[in-house]
Amino acid sequence: DNVGAEWMNYEYLSNWLLNNKIVHRLYGEQSHVQLASRGDEILKFLASRGLLTKVHLDLLWNHTKGKHEADVSSIYSTIVRMSSHLKEDQVEYLFKQLQTIPYKKIGALELKLVHELTRYPDYKTSTTAVNTLGVAYLWNIAQDENGVETGVVLQAVEKLILLMQKPRSKALRKLYLKACMTNLKMGKSVLQSLRIARGILGIMTARQSKEVTHAVIDEMEAQQNILESSLKELKTYCDLSCKAVKESKELDAANVDIGAEVLVGKYCHEMQLKCRLKFLAYILTNSSLKLEKPDVLLVWECIVKNAPSPRIRDQCLDWIKALDANLAFTPKALIVLFESIASSLDLKRLTMPGLMCFCDYFLRVNNAKGLVDVDQKDHEAFLVQTTKPLEGVTRLWDICLRAEDENVFTKACKFLIDLHQNLTPSLLMQVAYVREGFVATCMGSIKTAAYALGLNRWKPDSAPEPREPVSLTPTSFRTTGSPATTLNFELAVGKMLSKAEAEAHCNAILRCLRLLDHFREECKDVLQPLPTRSKIRTDQPSPLLKPMDPPHQKTSGISFNAAESVQHASGKPLNHRYQMVGIPMRAAKLNAKGQPQTVRFEVEIPVGSPVTLLRYKACNQLGISESQISSVQLRTSDDTLLSDSDVVDPVKFQRVAFVTVIQSSLAPPEMAKQ
Question: How far is it, in rounded angstroms, from Cα 230 to Cα 224?
Fold first, then answer.
């Protein structure tokens, strides 16, 4: 009734709850699980009135001891829901209770409670002390010496980084960043420390300019020497992991995934190595720090040369390829790294990550030397700017001839061919010499292998020496081969070839023939009007050749007349092939629009010849009589009319890939511009 409303107020209700010890009944020894799970509103009410005491908190906390995980989760949720009404000293008291839990018994529920108690932004009093307690508690959990389960440790690291994002944690960031670097130098809890350090650096530089980001990490380098510390710790870890692999007999099995094994510390090798490399890449690409020559050699030896398994080596090569070379290396270090890649990789067992890493740094080094123009936006697109041998091209040839993996050969083959096809416009006149160099290199390799097998009658670069050849079939070189085969080998090389050596020479010959076949396919269109940068395509093969130097001549600004012609070194004229389209004289069928149908064909004439010769050959292909030749127009693909005074000049007409032949007596005027 209305009378009851006068005495039923907050004060009366609070006194009634305290006098009847409702909290004791809910969370005391005689409590019931269902009732306890519904008592959070009472606790929130008392806390909001400032009537919740440490006795109540003790009852609540003691209720979690010896209970099922679901009951513990319910109590923790109750604490979280009322935490916004707690005083700061009460929250600190709860943290002290948390610290009584042995580290080995800490799980995901405790981490969630710590995170929720710390992250609330609306405490009535200052939250600096509470925030410090929460971050410190998570930091202690993350340390290896405390023996916390590894999954819980990684969760603690993630929650600590989340707390560092709060504005009130700003003063703690540099403090814990320094603690991470101390751990790194001491080799303690390295994986967790690097993750936390990277997370804090990301928070400190979020939404900042490149200059500010560099300044933050450069300041750390000046104070903590983070680059040197990271490299030293990486070497220490890799040495210990290699030692563990050598000493363990179980890891020698072929079916053992070493990356998934714990070699040093508490975490698997793959996770440990990735964490170190990610941190190293982060500080290199977000600061002015660069790896010098000794640093590059150290990193290469640690992660590639001494890699415990091929899969780990491939992952490390992917990491090297992904680095921004302009930011991570000095010019000398870049060359040293490429030399390490080119000389250290096992070409016979080369994998795709190794090949792609080689090709990537091949372009970077040659781009730095001004020999190749690499697109800055797309680092896999390039144009070759010289006919001189490129840095590392010999090694690329070796890959094409010796790599066992078919996919590796295919992509290396395509890359090699692209290096001979993708020339800058200024080299268009020398394309024949470049291609001649490709063919000459293939034939030279065939000649060398054939001599070793006794298939050639003369030594490479020497006078002919008559002798009997043997079969190219690899089975001819087995140990059960005929006496004649043995005799031929002795005549050819003065000793018996092993089966492996013979098969290697046979494979080299076959690879050269395949290279030539691929090259022929790529060179079907002899004239490429204006080369465009070509990518190292991952869906097709890729070869590379050593071009021959052409005779001295100008490559631009050349003026031709009808009496001049460009020649090979052999004295033969350099021909130019035009893709043409025209209307046949006797097969002028009409298309759907009522216009005569055109046909496509090719005409090849020497460079420097007059356009009249091109007109004559085109008319001959179309069956146009000599009396009608004068009525035929020649137009380039950009609709430029060619006159009789013009000559075949690919430098002058770089865009002339297609020439339209229009016969005015058959074609309507509008076809002249199609």
Answer: 11
16-47 pLDDT tens trace: 888 888 888 888 777 776 777 777 788 888 88
Task: Say if residue 508's pLDDT is above 70.
Answer: yes
- 328 contacts 285 by C-beta, under 8 angstroms: yes
Strands 575-582 and 599-606: antiparallel
C-beta atoms surrounding 138 within 10 Å: 25
Element (H, E) at 579: strand 575-582
> What average pLDDT does range 522-547 have in this prediction?
43
* Integer angstrom CA distances of residue 651 from 167, 343, 482, 633: 65, 40, 59, 22
- Produce one character per residue of 426-461: b if its CB has 16 or more CB atoms within 10 Å, e if not: ebbbbbbbbbbbbbebbeebbbbbbbbbbbbeeeee
Question: Helices marked H in 494-533 — which ranges?
Answer: 499-522
User: Minimal CA–CA distance to 322: which of 369, 271, 282?
Assistant: 282
The answer for 446, left when phi > 0, alpha when psi is -120 to 50, beta otherwise, is alpha
User: Using an 8 Å Cβ cutoff, are 122 and 169 in contact?
Assistant: no
DSSP 598: P
Residue type at 406? E
Q: Residues 6 or more apart from 211 whose CB is under 8 A from it?
A: none
Give the distance from CA 584 to its chain's centroid.
52
Under 8 Å CB-to-CB from 615, ≥6 apart: which residues? 629, 632, 634, 644
CB 28 within 8 A of CB 59: yes
Residues 464, 391: Cα–Cα separation, whole Å: 34
pTM of the model: 0.69
Beta strands in 147-191 (DSSP E): none
The whole-angstrom separation of Cα 118 and Cα 132 is 9
Pair of tokens at residue 234? 């990486």
Gyration radius of the chain over CA positions = 39
Residue type, 411: K
Contact 550, 433 (CB under 8 A): yes
Q: Which of 559, 556, 655, 661 has its CA nearest to residue 608?
A: 559
Q: What does the pLDDT look like over 456-467, one tens digit per residue?
A: 544 555 444 433
State both tokens at 592.
């759907």
Mean pLDDT within 485-496: 39
Q: Give which of 396, 488, 392, 501 is closest to 449, Cα–Cα.
A: 501
Of the CA atoms within 13 Å of residue 367, those in its CB half-sphere come to 18
Calpha distance 243→6 (Å, rounded): 82
User: How far is it, in rounded angstroms, from Cα 670 to Cα 307?
Assistant: 68
Q: In angstroms, rounded to a whole number, what is the distance separating the alpha carbons of residues 113 and 110?
A: 5
Residues paired with 647 in a beta bridge: 610
The Cβ of residue 282 has, within 10 Å, a number of other Cβ atoms equal to 16
Q: Residue 491 in contact with residue 457, Cβ under 8 Å?
A: no
DSSP three-state, residue 291: strand
Q: What is the largest CA-CA distance in the chain?
A: 130
Cβ(530)–Cβ(652) under 8 Å?
Answer: no
Report helix angle 406-421 to 393-402, nearest 10.
Answer: 140
End-to-end CA separation in angstroms for the chain: 97
Residue 57: what pLDDT?
85
Distance CA 476, CA 506 (A): 11
SS3 content of the chain, % helix, strand, coil (to 5): 60, 5, 35
Beta carbons within 8 Å of 462's beta carbon, 6+ residues apart: none
